[in-house]
Design a protein that fits this description.
This protein is an alpha/beta fold. It contains 14 helices and eight strands. The radius of gyration is 22 Å and the shape is elongated.
Length: 312
C-alpha cells in the first residue's frame, strides 16, 4: 500500500472533504491540484504536495482521482491544455468521481484502454444530517458507488477506504455512475411525491378557508407530521414561517456558480442529474412515469392554484 502514489484533482466542498480524509488516513503520498490556490495550500498544510496542473498530478501518480463538477469540467481536466492525458502513464488508473453518467465512463474506458490506462468510476454520495438540512460533508463518512474491472477496483480499494465509510462495487465501468443516478433520482422523486401530497391537501385547506401557517403547525404537531415533513425535505423542527419560506424557494439556495467570461452557464445539479438519469432510462428502455408526473405537477401552476397564490 505504501508504494501507491495518489493524485487528486478538484478540491471543492466534496472533493476537499474526501481528499483531506485521504491525506490524513492513508499515509500515502498525495499530489493535489485545484484552480483555487487556497484549496491546494490547505491540503499542503496537511502533508499533500501541490501541483500546477492536472498533467503534473498524473505524472506524479499511479492512481488519479478527478472530482470536478460535471462532464464539461472533466473533459478540461483530462484533455485540456496541460491535462491529465498528457501526464498519465501505461498502467495508471484514472478514477472519475465527477457526475458524468455511465456512457461517458464507458467511452473514456475504451479510449484509455488504447493507451494502456485503466478507468474506474467512483461516484460519491454524501450524508445530510445537520439540523439546517444542508449537505454536511464529514471526513471519511461518504459513500462510494464504484464501477470498474475487478482487479482495477481492488487496486484502488485502500485509497477508497481512506476516503469513505461505505464502498460498494456495483459492476463494470459506468456502474458507479448508474448507481448514483438511481440513488439521486429515487431520493428526489420520493421527496417530491411526498411534498406534493402535502401541497395537495394544503391547497384543499386553503380553498376551504383554512390558514396556511396554522395548517403547517398542525402537520408538525400531528402523529405523522414529523415523518411527513422530513420526507418532504422540510424538517419538523423548523417553525411554520421557515417551512413556508422554504416551500417558496427563498431559503437554503446555494449561490450560483460563476464561470469565466465567454463560457456557457453551468447546468444546475438538479437539472443535470435528471437529464443524465432520463438519458439512461431511454437507453435501457425503462419507463419513468413518476418522474413525468413530478414534472407535470411542478410545471402546471394551475393544479394547485390556491397554494401557488399563497406562495407568491
Amino acid at each position: 500500500m505504501s508504494t501507491i502514489k495518489v493524485g487528486f484533482i478538484g478540491l471543492g466542498n466534496l472533493g476537499g472533504c474526501l481528499c483531506r480524509s485521504l491525506v490524513k488516513k492513508s499515509g500515502l503520498p498525495v499530489t493535489v491540484y485545484d484552480l483555487r490556490k487556497e484549496a491546494v495550500q490547505e491540503l499542503e498544510s496537511l502533508g499533500a504536495t501541490g501541483a500546477n496542473s492536472p498533467r503534473e498530478v498524473a505524472a506524479a501518480s499511479d492512481i488519479v482521482i478527478s472530482l470536478v463538477r460535471d462532464a464539461r469540467q472533466n473533459e478540461e481536466v483530462i484533455f485540456g491544455k496541460d491535462g491529465l492525458w498528457e501526464g498519465v502513464k501505461r498502467g495508471d488508473i484514472i478514477v472519475i468521481s465527477s457526475t458524468v453518467g455511465p456512457f461517458y465512463i464507458r467511452e473514456l474506458y475504451a479510449k484509455a484502454k488504447e493507451k494502456g490506462v485503466k478507468v474506474v468510476d467512483a461516484a460519491v454520495t454524501k450524508i445530510t444530517t445537520n439540523k439546517e438540512g444542508f449537505p454536511a460533508n464529514y471526513e471519511g463518512w461518504a459513500t462510494l458507488m464504484v464501477g470498474g474491472d475487478e482487479d482495477d477496483v481492488k487496486r484502488c480499494w485502500p485509497v477508497f477506504e481512506s476516503m469513505a465509510k461505505y464502498i460498494i462495487h456495483l459492476g463494470g465501468p459506468g456502474a458507479g455512475q448508474a448507481g448514483k443516478l438511481v440513488n439521486n433520482e429515487a431520493t428526489t422523486a420520493f421527496t417530491a411525491i411526498t411534498r406534493y401530497c402535502l401541497i395537495e391537501y394544503l391547497n384543499l385547506g386553503l380553498k376551504a378557508g383554512l390558514d396556511l401557517e396554522k395548517m403547517i403547525e398542525v402537520w408538525g404537531a400531528g402523529v405523522g407530521g414529523p415523518k411527513l415533513l422530513d420526507n418532504a425535505g422540510l424538517k419538523p423542527w423548523y417553525n411554520s414561517h421557515e417551512i413556508i419560506e422554504i416551500m417558496r424557494g427563498r431559503a437554503g439556495r446555494a449561490p450560483a456558480t460563476t464561470v469565466p467570461a465567454g463560457q456557457a452557464p453551468l447546468e444546475d445539479f438538479g437539472t443535470m442529474y435528471k437529464r443524465l438519469a432520463m438519458e439512461m432510462a431511454k437507453a435501457v428502455g425503462a419507463e419513468v412515469p413518476i418522474s413525468r408526473l413530478i414534472d407535470e405537477l411542478r410545471d402546471a401552476e394551475s393544479t394547485y392554484d390556491a397554494f401557488s397564490a399563497a406562495m407568491k
